Amino acid sequence: MKTKSYAVTTPTTPFEPLTIERREVRPQDVSIEILYCGICHSDIHTARNEWPGTVFPVVPGHEIVGRVTEVGSEVMNVKVGDTVGVGCFVDSCRTCVNCKNHEESYCLNGATSTYDSGDKISGGRTYGGYSKQIIVDKDFVLKITHKENIEAVAPLLCAGITTYSPLKHWNIGKGHKVGIVGLGGLGHMALKLAVSFGAEVTVLARSNGKEADAKRLGAHHFEVITDPQNVQRLYANYDFIIDTVSAPHDYNLYLGLLKTNGNMICVGIPPEPAKIDMMTLIEKGRSLSGSLVGGIKETQEMLDYCAEHNIVSDIEMTTIDKIDEAYERILKGDVRYRFVIDMKSL
Ligand code: NAP
Ligand code: ZN
Ligand code: ZN
Question: CATH topology for 2-155+294-299+313-345?
Answer without folding.
Answer: Quinone Oxidoreductase; Chain A, domain 1 (3.90.180)
